[in-house]
């Protein structure tokens, strides 16, 4: 990373795993959006294939339909191909579940290694991993009760999960990045999460009705089998997995849609058993064809509708960073260093520049709650801006030159906002406003 493209564009407060993945992606495919799209498509297809593997023995008739359904849902809903961390760790979780519960015994050791790498992509996978291991212990309870000493072996087996974390941490300290590692983990274990009630977390699912519907089908299916007192292992795994992935998605209290992506896999796995349940009475022949037809004629129209909505939104919200960059180029200006006071930090990438402040996402220091939770040092940011004297400042939501300072609400980091007003009004002039409400200011003397 160290300020070199492409890795510094991906800088954020995340574990090292996602950077390793993107280093591989861009190393082989080059630094481009196309490379990201291709890699995400490969990962989603891989996840769908493993879902098919998991279902083919216990629910073979609908395994293909479930895999296809996952592929369609993931491709169109919840930012499924946007290259988010959830997409990559979910693929590893699906693979880990396969090795842990269904793979050959000689390859079972791969499960904790795969899940361990998922953990260093995003730490909230700990909810899922802990759930998998508790269920694994439960399924092997008879063997453990017969041989209590075997419990130690299970614990040592699960402990392999931490190997990727220990290796990566040793490497991070070895290259002299230990201070940054400790700082980010201090932020992680602070009060960064918003305090929301469990009911509010449940209600958040209404924002994503398709996912909520599939989960309801899964829950209904689970209780149907529970009534028969015979729950298939896949259904049991998926039921617990849905619960843990829900906790993982909502633990911060921020209900961003891509946080819910990992819930699709267990929801698809579990809901597919409804057709197996109905199959006893209603589907004597052509079972697999019925499932495929159902997926094609029910899910695809829904996907098309949502796709049209995404296209519509993409037209409403243009690529502001690119528009700014093109306008600056057309004006034959080189305003570097640039600074994003509030708005899209994508312009850093286009101007091939490292952010002048340590925290790249403006919302993390402009928002009062985030600034407090992440231990933002306002004086440090003000000092860096004053010393760097950026040639361009992007400020969204408020026009510093036109709106009085009393225009801001209580959610802003007031101390920093006052500084922005004073600094920009003193040394900058208005350049242009970009939709929806983003203003660019250039330093006096730039033209």
TrEMBL record:
Mostly located where?
Answer: membrane
Provide one Gene Ontology biological process annotation: lipopolysaccharide biosynthetic process
Q: Which GO terms describe its cellular component?
A: plasma membrane
- What are the TM regions of this chain, as residue ranges? 21-54, 60-78, 87-103, 115-139, 151-173, 208-227, 234-253, 259-278, 290-306
Keyword list, A-Z: Cell membrane, Glycosyltransferase, Membrane, Transferase, Transmembrane, Transmembrane helix
**Any keyword ATP-binding?**
no
Compartments annotated for it: namely: Cell membrane
Question: Topology with regard to the membrane?
Answer: Multi-pass membrane protein
GO-annotated molecular function:
pentosyltransferase activity
Residue ranges constituting the Glycosyltransferase RgtA/B/C/D-like domain according to the UniProt record: 14-162
Protein name (record): Dolichyl-phosphate-mannose-protein mannosyltransferase
In terms of domain of life, where is this protein from?
A: Bacteria
